Amino acid sequence: MAPTQTGSARVRVAVPSVAERVAEELRYQLAEGMLLPGARLTEATIAEDLGVSRNTVREAFAELASERLVVRQPNRGVFVATLEAGDIHDLYTVRRAIEVSSIRGGGSAERVAAVRAAVDEGKRAAAADDNDALGSANQHFHGAIVALAESKRLDTIMRHVLAEMRLYFHKATSDAHFYSAWLEENEAICAALEAGELERAGELLLGYLNRSEEQQLTVHGE
Amino acid sequence: MAPTQTGSARVRVAVPSVAERVAEELRYQLAEGMLLPGARLTEATIAEDLGVSRNTVREAFAELASERLVVRQPNRGVFVATLEAGDIHDLYTVRRAIEVSSIRGGGSAERVAAVRAAVDEGKRAAAADDNDALGSANQHFHGAIVALAESKRLDTIMRHVLAEMRLYFHKATSDAHFYSAWLEENEAICAALEAGELERAGELLLGYLNRSEEQQLTVHGE
DNA sequence: ATCGAAGAATCGTTGAACAATTCGACAATG
DNA sequence: CATTGTCGAATTGTTCAACGATTCTTCGAT
Question: Which residue in the set A66, A67, A102 is minimally distant from B63, CB to CB?
Fold first, then answer.
């Protein structure tokens, strides 16, 4: 069927393991708000629901715990992570570190184009008045900024941070006017990036993150 | 015995689970060079060696894999992570992001004192001509810099990065004169930090990281 | 020397089992 | 009434044995 491996590195087809599919499913439910912070995840129940063995569920839990989406309490069980004092600040501290650093380093034309694409995606979502899509676009925007650095490790860190934020800030800011403000900021940041004014882009981004943190801090009980 | 819970949050005694102790043991062996990059870790063997079940070993592997210390190859097994093209640059990209960001934010007097303590630790190790201790001191120094930010998440990221570096650069630079150069730089960085010249401290640190990356790139085959 | 097929080794996953721990209810005590 | 102690149910942590699937190795045939 397939011609004999021409050139491209042999790619393992790598069907995701059952444990990974379980983790993926749970990640999905966490992002969609089907599993809310504090909820208990009983091994046996989930194993039965998903038709897998308890051990497999445990492996999935280990993965999610390493991403801070769930918390293991010894001998008590696994719970969906809850927002504790300082967590918001903590998350934004990570974002400031890696996003600002990434944008200050600039990036290839393709990567910059990806940032621009995310901005446009946001504009289209705004035009369509699709709040959900707007939220996604915003995450794509910030993901694209980190992607400028072309660092596997920073990318996964950012992926984890964004997953946490989806969990905590789930539908928190369904207020439309928040997003429109973001849009303008994103546009400005992107423009500075495209113009090669990296220092300024970094400042703008930093300002955005600080304001965003402030906002989340007031929305959630300090 | 203990007075009735005065103030401090209730702390779970939390005996580390068997899986965590296995992970800890493996982490130790990885840091000490008993397990070299590329080595295969057979589940059954390790389970028998440590007197635990195969499933427990698997849980430990999941943890180590999330820290990038080992790599899982589906249906083939777990191998100690090997340095691939771009990994050195990648690691330093993460370090630049979080270390520079942390030092630019300054920190409490205690945290700054901890940085100073790490510098002194390095000086003592140098005086004692203890190369091993010198390496540790250097890691403590950079860990203390990240700790300035008082961010759980940045701390664990840094812990993982340093663990990776211990794995890869194990005894690579046992050349003593490398370390003495570090010492002076660390002193200068710490001095700037103590003087509140955060911008300059950040520049110094950035310069150090760039040079250090350069060095590692030449030592290891580009 | 190349190729392919049989056999061994190892992984992925399941299912069952059991001790240890936690939790909830309920009774006993002061 | 609040505290303490006890019992039983539920759940976790861990082990063990099993089996199909995949990979590695060996070895013989071409």
Answer: A66
Pick the residue from chain B with its C-alpha nearest to A152. B90
CB half-sphere exposure, B26, CA atoms < 13 A: 35
State which H helix or E strand residue B4 sits in: none
3-state helix, strand, coil in chain A (%, to 5): 65, 5, 30
Nearest to A165 by CA among A115, A221, A91: A91
Listed by range, residues with Cβ under 7 angstroms from strand D are A 12, 41-44, 54-55, 58, 72, 74-78; B 17-19, 51-56, 59, 74-76
Question: What's the CA–C1' distance between A35 and D19, in Å?
Answer: 35
Look up the protein residue whose alpha carbon has the minimum distance to the C1' of D21.
B75
CB atoms within 10 A of CB A96: 21
Identify the CATH number of the domain defined by range B87-219.
1.20.120.530
Nearest CA to CA, how far is A177 from chain B (Å)? 31
Q: Quick check: A102 and A112 in contact, CB under 8 A? A: no
Structure tokens that stand for A6 in this block:
């021409």
Q: CA B113 to CA B96: how far, in whole Å?
A: 22
A24 vs A38: CA distance, rounded Å: 19
Q: Are B167 and B81 in contact (CB under 8 A)?
A: yes
Q: Please state, for a pLDDT cut of 70, what percent of chain A lies above it.
A: 90
In this complex, do B90 and A157 lie within 8 Å of one another by their Cβ atoms?
no
- What are the pLDDT digits (tens) for A186-198? 999 999 999 999 9
**In residues, how long is chain A?**
222
Q: Which two tokens stand for residue A99?
A: 């996003």
Rounded mean pLDDT, A24-41: 95
A212 exposed, middle or buried (CB, 10 Å; 0-12, 13-18, 19+)?
buried
Domain ranges within chain A, ordered by starting residue: 18-80, 87-219
In Å, what is the separation between the CA of B157 and the C1' of C2?
A: 50
The answer to whether B135 and B172 have CB atoms below 8 angstroms apart is no
Å from the A26 CA to the C4 C1': 44
Distance from CA of B187 to the nearest CA of A (A): 24
Residue B84 CA: distances (Å) to CA of A9, A102, A176, B220: 15, 22, 45, 11
Q: Which residue has the higher pLDDT, A155 or A15?
A: A155
The secondary structure element, H or E, covering residue B134 is: helix B131-147
Please determine, looking at this structure, whether the domain spanning B18-80 carries the CATH number 1.20.120.450: no
Q: What is the pLDDT of residue A175?
A: 61
- Covered bases, chain D (protein CB within 7 Å): 11-18, 21-24
Q: How many CA atoms lie within 13 A of A54 on its CB side?
A: 6
